[in-house]
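May I ask you to comment on the folded chain given beneath this request?
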Amino acid sequence: MAQWLKLARYEAAAMRRCDLVLAVGERRLRDVIDYRFAMADERVELLVRRGDDETIYEIEKDPDEDIGIDFVEPLFDRLRTCNNKCPFCFLTQMPKGMRKSLYLKDDDYRLGFLYGNFVTLTNLTEDDWQRIAEQHLSPMYVSIHATDRATRAVLLGKADVPDVLEQIRRFGELGIEVHTQIVALPGINDTAVLHESISQLAALYPVVQTIAVVPVGLTKYRFDGKRPQSIRAAIHVHETPEWIDTNWERQPLWDEAMQLQPATRQPAVDPAELGHCARQIVAADVPMRTFTAAEAGRVIDLIASYQQHFQRDFGTRLVYPSDEFYLLSERDMPPADEYDGMPQYSNGVGMTRDFIDGWARVQRRLPARMPAPTELTL
């Protein structure tokens, strides 16, 4: 049943694999976070079901002691699915015929806390906020893409979105730290919008601990023939039958009655001068594409100028381009000490430098030649 957590391992002889933990004390468990929170006491009672029998185990321990229980799944009250329709969503760029779990769109803040998954905060309820405060779930990992609300709405494929800066300020009031990421798209949020996003997020330091800027990733499965999809077309991929989940928020994406005159679509028009709906439509018609080498280099240079400023003011560079920007621009990776400990390593920031340095250390220990032909796979 949904309110149970299944045990994977327990070191003590009293409990067995596949026992079900129903509650700790009076607390029914929603996930492994609830379990850890409830187990912080020195004396706890576990309500456990084995088959048709229920047993209460009384346990005395040190407050921080791990009694050795592992769980098959971290969540048991249903994974929080994503209600966004991001045009660059990697799930809509998957080939068909893979295992079903690869197509599951999650946007669950609990996985952000547990594993560093980035979430958008667009589906948080007031109960979620109260729980985050009560259990002090820090740090959180937030996908920003743009601090400008209208631009962010486009990039999340929604008619409107919460003010993410206000949400981060609220995290700060709760003592919650935040790591952020920006997925950059050429022509959308890579120049003026990126300037604005970095500066506004930096104003929230030290609540905002890091800002990673990652180039949009596109696969061959997202193209119709040889014609790139527009942002609008990519968003509507989410509305095809195989992607509609009855639990997702159903809302109109675009006000189809609001149509701009052709003259408004000319390149001379500055999107920043347009209204909310107009900016959505203009941005939605921009083709999705990857960065050129020159464009990737300009993003690196923009971020480098901010890094110098932040290093002086904060003692940390704060904002980091992902490794892929250096690969796209054919520039050398920065030295390891410019990553400030690589806090966004799993997001592709510093991973290549770490590999290069690790290989250099190993290479010095390799023999000059092998006694026989040898094949290695990296």
